Amino acid sequence: MSDKKQWRFEPLDSWFFREARAFGTSGNNELSSLFPPSARTVAGAVRTLIGETQGVDWQQFAQDGEYADLKRWIGFGDDLGTLKITGPYPLWKGERLYPAPLHLLGKGEKYVFLKPGEPVECDLGKVRLPQLAIVLPGAKPLESVWLDGADLKRVLCSENPKTVYRSSDLYDVEPRLGIARNNAQRTAADGLLYQTRHLRPRPELSIGVTVSSIPSELHPAHGITRFGGEGRASSVTIGEAALLPAASKQQSQNLLLMLLTHADFGDQRWLPAEFKSSEQNGIRVWCGQLHGVDLILHSAVLGKAAREGGWDLLNQKPRPVKSQIPAGSVYFCTVTGDPKAAVDALHGQHIGNETALGRGQLAVGFWKF
After folding, report:
1. Do you know which InterPro entries this protein is assigned to (predicted)?
2. How far apart are CA 180 and CA 340, in angstroms?
3. What is the pLDDT, as a whole number, of residue 23?
4. pLDDT for position 27
5. 18 and 50, same domain (yes or no)
6. CATH code for the domain of 303
C-alpha cells in the first residue's frame, strides 16, 4: 500500500490566506487572500495536526534533543524531515482541480492557443516568441481559472476545455474590517484599523494536499486544525491519494511542460538552472536536462510572479518575500530522445528548489509548430 495520503481541508468558517504584502504598503491598509494557500501554510497545518495527535508539548519540541523521533519525520523549522507534500490544490466535490495552462486564451466560450511563432529579433536576440495559432480579438489569458483532470488532458493536447471553473464559481470574497484593542482599558486603539478580504467557499469546495514519506500511523484519521491567517478552523479528513491524470498517448518530439504548482528556480530565474543558452540554426534556444531527459527549450508562457512570504513561527519574524514562477506556466520544448520515455520520466515529477514542499510539479502535453 502506498504511503501517500490525501489530506482534505474543509472550512468551518471563512478562509484567509494572507498575501505577501505588509499592512500599510504604499499607503494601502487592505490585504487580499491568496487561493490556493501557499505550500508552507499547508505544510505548517499538516505538521501541527500530526504533532497535536502525537501529544506534543510545543515548548519542549523547540528544544534540542526533544522529540527526536518525531522530528526525523516532520522536521523542525525550515527542515521538513522526511515529510513531502504535493499541492495544495482545490477539490471540487472531492475531485482535484488544476490551474488552466497559460497558453490557453479565451473570450466568452471561445478559446485559442499560443504556440512558438516565427523567429523575431528582440532584446533576447533572435528567438521564437509565443503567438496566437488563430486570431481571436479580445482573447485573454485564463487567470484564476481551473480545470478538472479530463479538461486538463484536453488542453495539454491543444483541445478546447468543456468546462472551466472561475474563482467566482468556487468562493465569494468577503471584506472584513479589524481594529486593534486596548484590553487593559477595554477600548479600541486610536487609528489602528485594518482591512482584509476573506474567502467564503462554496459547500462543494475544499483544499487537498498529498502527504507522503512518513509512517502510516502518523496520519490521523481526522481532526480540526487552525488553517491560514487568523487561525481559522478547518476540519481535516484523510483518504487515499488522488492520482494525476495520465499523460496523452500522442507520440511527438514536441513536449509541452506545464507547472501544476508554483516553482522556485532561484536567483530570479525563469527556467530551471539546468538550462543554458545556446543557438540552433541561428535562433536562440536553451538546452538542458530534467530527470535524465535531454530537452531543447524554444519558448515559454509565464504568468505574473507568485509572491510568497509568511511568518516564521520558530524565529518570530516575517519570512523574506520570494518570487516564484506561477502554476499554469508552460514551456515549449523538443526532446532529443524517445518521447514516450521522456513523458514517463517527467509527468508528475517536480523540478527546481524546495520540491519537498510540492513546488514545481509537472504535467506533460504536446504542441505543434
Report:
1. CRISPR-assoc_protein_Cmr3 (IPR019117)
2. 59
3. 61
4. 56
5. yes
6. 2.60.40.4350
Tell me how far apart the alpha carbons of residues 93 and 177 are, in angstroms, rounded to a whole number: 31
CA dihedral (200, 307, 131, 349) in degrees, to 10, reads -90
What value does the mean pLDDT take over residues 281-297?
Answer: 95
Dmax over Cα atoms in the chain, in whole Å?
Answer: 75
154 lies in the same domain as 235: no
* Domain final residue, candidates 223, 240, 257: 240
Of 308, 368, 338, the C-alpha closest to 21 is 308
Asked whether residue 152 falls in the same domain as residue 272, the answer is yes
Determine the Cα–Cα distance for residues 10 and 222; give it in Å rounded to an integer: 11
Instruction: Residue 47: give the domain boundaries.
Output: 5-94+170-240
Look up residue 84 and give its three cell numbers: 513531502
* Residue 127 near residue 100 (C-beta atoms within 8 A): no
Cell 487561493 locates to 35
Handedness of CA 8, 162, 359, 212 (dihedral sign): positive
Backbone torsions φ then ψ of 356, nearest 5 degrees = -65, -20
On whether both 215 and 159 belong to a single domain, the answer is no
Map residue 246 onto helix, strand or coil. Answer: coil
Measured CA distances, 254 to 111, 120, 129 (Å): 21, 20, 16
User: Given a cut of 60, is residue 69 above it in pLDDT?
Assistant: yes
Residues 175 and 303 both lie in one domain? no
Q: Are 136 and 107 in contact (CB under 8 A)?
A: yes
Helix (H, G, I), strand (E, B) or coil at 340: helix
Cα distances from 40 to residues 30, 86, 108, 232, 272, in angstroms, run: 22, 11, 35, 16, 21
Provide the CA 147 distance to its chain's centre, in angstroms. Answer: 14
pLDDT of 1 strictly over 50: no
Report the DSSP beta bridge partners of residue 364. 257
Residues 9, 88 within the same domain = yes
Q: Is the same domain home to 276 and 158?
A: yes
28 lies in the same domain as 146 = no
**Residue 156 and residue 98: Cα distance in Å, rounded?**
12
Select from 295, 299, 302 the least CA-distant residue to 143: 302
